[in-house]
Design a protein that fits this description.
Helix content: 55-70%
Number of strands: 0
Radius of gyration: 23 Å
Order of helices and strands: HHHHHHHHHHHHHHHHHHHHHHHHHHH
Oligomer: single chain
Largest sheet: none
Length: 523
């Protein structure tokens, strides 16, 4: 039986340890020839490396004592037959979120390009961005690498920055996996770079004002990436007048990092505390958002009633151990008696951290790890044994986690929950959203049946929860690039207004955006 896990505060040091954990897990559960550290260290150097790599250097990387270099992580991907940038992108994402201070520089530094090369690269990428050409994730990372180097002075009018950010955000909102992480890293650099941040904040605010946008939660949350006073003021405006629950939740999520980085004045913190108090005490607000509000309230004040958590600590420990046991039971082999103590902590954070972003980035770690299949199977077992008649925060986090770590094997189960009866409508809603990201592919026939089911329910009841599920299904259809089905749905009479708007948004996405971000084939 696995040990019971007691949660700890997640610091940057812990995240660095998790970078090492990811590299070590991929190696020890990877190709058999690299499970021993000595031959792996000997094979790491490649063309352009100035020296050999010692076993102690690899050990320091894999225990989190030191951060590996960018070329080293890319070499891990090559030797372990991992998809290009699959480890680099996850590491960039988690280290940026947990960084001690906001900076355009990535934690894993890139080799600085030579000035003449940087000038050519910048010109080539800007030509693509400002045209109808496709822009790849590597192109965006080239732009950000040149931006943070001193090789080329960046003097550009605001309208050019706005054009760059507008296109980048359009691609962020319709991408997934590594493609999303590469673009997400670039938008964070633009938000924190002194030359581009004001244009980035203004563009994000304009997009949020357009209620037809599909990814309003994530777009509002992006404001946590800038320390400019305009970003703090924008977050306060969205809390005061969000327009809908998605924008309010995104603004509340942005407060987590912005409070940590001291982006707010004392008066602004007082306003945030007031909103958090109201939300934490409002029983009509979903449990997950109330837990987030209570977590923020504990940061800015210490009221006695702010201890709301997703589940009790004892229950979280029990459930974490159960998922851990289920994960380990799926492993095809043991590795010399090696016991992975970090795995339980990451599983716990994926399921029970009150902050959505922290849960998401823990899930990214597990998705990139060799434990993915086992975690996905264990989570599916937990869904099967959970009480799905009430839309509890625990059930919501299970579906959130499966949305990231779930594979093609779990997709048919998620498809069934979208249309299942006798369970909470919130479960249908979460399952529909999961279809936008979970591995595998849904057949045309299943899409038709699923949409038809919820259309009939909406047309019979006109209930807001069925409209919400239809909206989530439009998002999932868009992420799957099922244009004919979206077109057919858009032409359906008597659609909820939000669903009609969402379908129209997807259908009006320019071809250059569609060409830049193609759906990933996720197993």
């Amino acid at each position: 039986m696995a040990e019971r896990y007691v949660p700890t505060v997640v610091s940057l040091a812990i995240q660095r340890r998790r970078v090492g954990w990811l590299l070590r897990a991929c190696r020890r559960h990877g190709p058999e020839g690299w499970r021993n550290i000595e031959p792996f260290a000997a094979a790491l150097p490649c063309t352009g490396w100035r020296s050999n790599v010692s076993v102690s250097t690899v050990s320091r990387w894999e225990t989190g004592a030191t951060l590996p270099t960018f070329p080293a992580i890319r070499r891990y991907e090559t030797l372990l037959a991992r998809p290009p940038f699959s480890l680099v992108s996850v590491i960039d994402t988690i280290l940026r979120y947990h960084a001690k201070r906001l900076t355009p520089l990535p934690a894993v530094r890139r080799p600085a390009p030579e000035a003449a090369l940087a000038t050519r690269q910048l010109a080539a990428v800007l030509d693509k961005v400002c045209s109808d050409d496709a822009v790849s994730g590597t192109d965006w990372q080239t732009l950000s690498t040149v931006m943070i180097s001193s090789a080329v002075p960046l003097l550009a009018p605001r309208r050019l920055w706005e054009e760059i950010v507008d296109r980048l955000l359009a691609e962020v909102m319709v991408s997934d996996g590594v493609a999303w992480m590469q673009r997400f890293e670039t938008i964070n650099i633009l938000l924190s770079h002194p030359d581009s941040q004001e244009a980035a904040i203004g563009t994000i605010s304009s997009i949020i004002a357009d209620r037809g946008t599909q990814s309003l939660v994530g777009t509002a949350c992006l404001l946590d990436g800038s320390g400019h006073p305009d970003a703090a003021r924008s977050v306060l405006r969205l809390l005061h007048d969000p327009g809908d629950d998605r924008v309010f939740k995104g603004a509340l999520m942005a407060c987590v990092r912005k409070i940590r980085y001291r982006h707010f004045t004392e008066a602004q913190l007082g306003t945030i505390a007031w909103y958090s108090t109201e939300v934490a005490a409002d029983s009509t607000v979903n449990e997950e958002t109330r837990s987030l509000a209570a977590s923020i309230l504990r940061t800015v004040a210490t009221p006695p009633d702010a201890e709301r958590t997703i589940v009790s600590p004892a229950m979280a420990s029990l459930l974490t151990s159960r998922v851990l046991d289920g994960t380990l039971s799926q492993l095809s082999h043991d590795v010399d008696g090696y016991r992975d103590l970090e795995l339980a902590r990451i599983i716990h954070d994926m399921l029970f951290d009150p902050v959505f972003d922290s849960r998401l980035y823990a899930a990214f770690l597990l998705q990139a790890s060799p434990y993915r299949d086992g975690v996905a199977a264990a989570l599916t077992s937990e869904v099967a044994r959970a009480d799905l008649r009430a839309g509890s925060a625990w059930v919501t986090t299970l579906f959130e986690a499966l949305r990231v770590v779930g594979t093609a094997r779990q997709r048919p189960t998620i498809e069934q929950y979208v249309v299942a009866t006798g369970i909470s409508q919130e479960v249908n809603d979460n399952a529909a959203y999961a279809l936008g990201h979970i591995g595998g592919h849904t057949s045309y026939e299943v899409w038709q049946r699923t949409i038809g089911h919820h259309l009939r329910l909406w047309q019979t009841t006109q209930a807001a929860d069925h409209a919400s599920t239809l909206d989530r299904l439009v998002y999932a259809l868009g992420m799957a690039r099922e244009w004919s089905l979206i077109r057919r749905l858009a032409q359906t009479p008597n659609l909820p207004a939000a669903v009609s708007t969402a379908a129209g948004w997807w259908l009006t996405q320019p071809q250059r955006i569609r060409a830049s971000v193609t759906p990933q084939t996720i197993p």
